[in-house]
C-alpha cells in the first residue's frame, strides 16, 4: 500500500513518557471523553488504532501522508511497547540465527 492510496489526516504525535507515533489520526469519543485515535504506520502499513487521551499529548505535528510514511519507524524496537505487543506475526522480525562461536561456550556449561 502506498501513501497516495490512503485517505485521512496524518501527524507525528509525541506523548508524555517519550513515546512518538506516526500515523493517521482522528478524534473519537469513547467513554464520554474525546480521544486521539492514531493508526501507527509500520513497514508501510497501518496498524490497529491506539487511543490516546488529550492530556497525555505533548505535541502534534500535522503532515501529509507522504511525510508520515517516510518518518514512520523502520524498526520494531522504535515503537512503544504496547504497540509492539499488537504487531501481527508477519510484521515481527525473524529470530536471529544462533552464533556458532557462542554454541561452543554453551557446551562448557
Q: Indicate the CATH topology.
A: SH3 type barrels
Highest CATH level, the class: Mainly Beta
**Total helical segments:** 3
Strand residue percentage = 35-45%
The SSE string, one letter per element, is EEEEEEHHH
Largest sheet: 6 strands, antiparallel
Cα-to-Cα separation, first versus last residue: 49 Å
Mean pLDDT: 86
How many separate domains make up the residues? 1
Structural class: alpha+beta
Silhouette: globular
The total of beta strands comes to: 6
Radius of gyration from the alpha-carbon trace, in angstroms: 18 Å
Low-confidence stretches: none
Level-2 CATH architecture: Roll
Task: Please bin the fraction of helical residues.
Answer: 10-25%
Would you summarize the structure shown here?
This protein is 17% helix and 39% strand. It is of the alpha+beta class. The chain has a single domain, classed as Roll (SH3 type barrels), CATH 2.30.30.
Provide tags for this entry.
39% strand; 109 residues; 17% helix; 3 helices; alpha+beta; 6 strands; six-stranded antiparallel β-sheet; SH3 type barrels
